[in-house]
Amino acid sequence: MFNRIIVGTDLSPASLAVANCLGGLKTYGARHCLLMQCLTMQEAASVGLSYSSEILHEALKEQKTVIEQQGFEVEARIVPGFVLQEINRTAAEGNYQLIVVGTIKRSLTAEAFMGGITADIIHAAKLPVLILRIEPKTGDVKQCHKAGACDFSRHILFPTDFSENADNAFVYVEKLVAAGAKNVTLLHVQDKSKIDPHLKSRLEEFNRIDTERLEELKAKLAKKGKAEIKIALAYGSPAVEIMKFALEKKPDLIVMGRQGRGFVKELFLGSVSQNVARHAEADVLLVPASR
Q: What pLDDT is stored for residue 103 in this prediction?
């Protein structure tokens, strides 16, 4: 499923924490890892003319060793160019199936913020992107560790709006279940902004219809593996309700399509999946829309 993966890296402690947590992907077939550091032309020139070149190579060597110790075949590259362009090009040329990046939390209570490499990649990567939640040790961003377990199969949350792109992301949920995922929760949030006040009287009807849709998805997953599958409905702001649900149920992985309904609107307001990727406590697998 994810035999060949690209790990976007830099010199940060968060990148070392990401490297330490890739073993959980072996459940899904991961065997070959490309550790990739992209530098702009200015950065590349600076590295070539300074002692920072040695520091960069030593950091990559350390991360490479950590990943190899988890049983991966690892290649490390320093590539000049813009990160998104180079990763998309490399992914296509090398037949990779997944991009892995990290995002750091400033504290245990503050919102997560996206590093430059992560923000660039999740907006326009052509492959699914796995965003690992990293947090500082005792509030020190110079020392980081993985927030939560490195097990991506224990409990998967799949929020769906039944859009075409959600259906595309569901294909990956099916693959995860077939590969051995243990528990899956299928969640649909009735969007309060579209229902209240004029359609509030029909909420019971909408719940019945969408429960049937969730049951159909559940039946499909039941044929793919032995996972325990649950369904859930919520009412409110989709992004907020998804994050509340995740905070309460503590899934290890949230799987979402990167676009839902109303893509043009999302360009201006930010999509539900983008908000969840930034602020949810769990790791997030974002699946791009089919083009």
A: 82
Beta bridge partners of 196: none
pLDDT digits (tens, 9 = 90+) for 43-56: 545 545 454 667 78
Average pLDDT over residues 118-140: 79
Q: Which two tokens stand for residue 87?
A: 């990763």
Residue 234: Cβ within 10 Å count: 17
Dihedral, 200, 205, 206, 211 alpha carbons, nearest 10: 140
pTM of this structure:
0.88
Pairing label, strands 283-287, 183-191: unpaired
| pLDDT band at residue 133 under the 50/70/90 scheme | confident
Mean pLDDT score, 226-233: 98
How far is the first Cα of the chain from the last one, in angstroms, to the nearest whole number? 20
Q: Please give the Cα distance from 255 to 156 (Å, whole number).
A: 7
Q: Which of these, 107, 87, 70, 109, lies nearest to 35 by C-alpha position?
A: 87
Domains of the chain (ranges, CATH numbers)? 4-146 (3.40.50.620), 156-284 (3.40.50.620)
Hey, is 140 helix, strand or coil?
A: strand
Above 80 in pLDDT, residue 244? yes
The owner of tokens 């409110």 is: 236
Average pLDDT, the chain: 84
**Cβ distance 221 to 266 under 8 Å?**
no
**54-107: per-residue pLDDT in tens?**
778 888 999 999 999 999 999 999 888 777 788 889 999 999 999 998 887 644
* CA 109/CA 131 separation, integer angstroms: 19
Q: Which residues have C-beta within 8 Å of that of residue 157, sequence separation ≥ 6?
A: 184, 185, 187, 242, 245, 246, 249, 251, 253, 254, 255, 282
